Amino acid sequence: MPERDRFISNQRSATPGKAVPVKPRAFTAQFSDMTTGGPGSTNPSGIWSPAYQALKQALDRNDDPDNVLQALYDWLSQRNVKPSEVDRILDLPSPEHAYTALVQLIGGKLSPEKLPPVIQQTLKRAVQRVAQRYVEKGEQALAKEGERLKGLRGRYGVESAALLVRALLAS
């Protein structure tokens, strides 16, 4: 029997005592991922969505905040929630309020207090990353507008009131 055929037959028969190589898969859901209920469950309402499962796995792995946010935005887009709605959680009074609002946006009857500590920490880091992205975007917009205003000032000889007062006081 050729080596290839013996390997295939070994996989089918699962000969005791012989290790059968298993190919890793990029995304596989386990039965525990699909179960509902129970304290600390991250799928209490039995959501059967690949986007939700990708988000759940990113949270369970304590993944990088950028990866968590990508999975979060993919999941929320299926629920017709725009990224601007996620940005609005930053207007809440504290990071704890923002975390609670983010869990509510995720939906699925998740309870912010009952989530496992690793998932709470991962979601709080994701909230921090949302804030960081929002600030960076705002700073870039301000810098761009500042450059545009400097160009206008130079082209049209516009002087600001503060510069005019300083020039008059200096003379």
Explain what you see.
- The chain has eight helices and no strands.
- With 171 residues, it is mainly α.
- The protein has a domain of 88 residues.
- Helix 3 runs antiparallel to helix 4.
- The longest helix has 40 residues.
- The radius of gyration is 27 Å and the shape is elongated.
- About 6% of the residues have low confidence.
Question: Topology of this structure?
Answer:
Elements (H helix, E strand, L loop, with lengths): L2 H11 L17 H4 L15 H11 L4 H14 L4 H5 L7 H12 L10 H40 L4 H10 L1
Helix pairs in contact: 3-4, 4-7, 6-7
Give me some keywords for this one:
about 170 residues, mainly alpha
Helix segment count? Answer: 8
Helix content: 55-70%
* Straight-line distance between termini: 101 Å
The ordered H/E elements are: HHHHHHHH
Mean pLDDT: 79
- The beta-strand count equals 0
Q: Could you name the ranges where pLDDT drops below 50 across 5 or more consecutive residues? A: 4-13
| Helix/strand structural class | mainly alpha
The largest β sheet comes out as:
none
Please give the radius of gyration in angstroms.
Answer: 27 Å
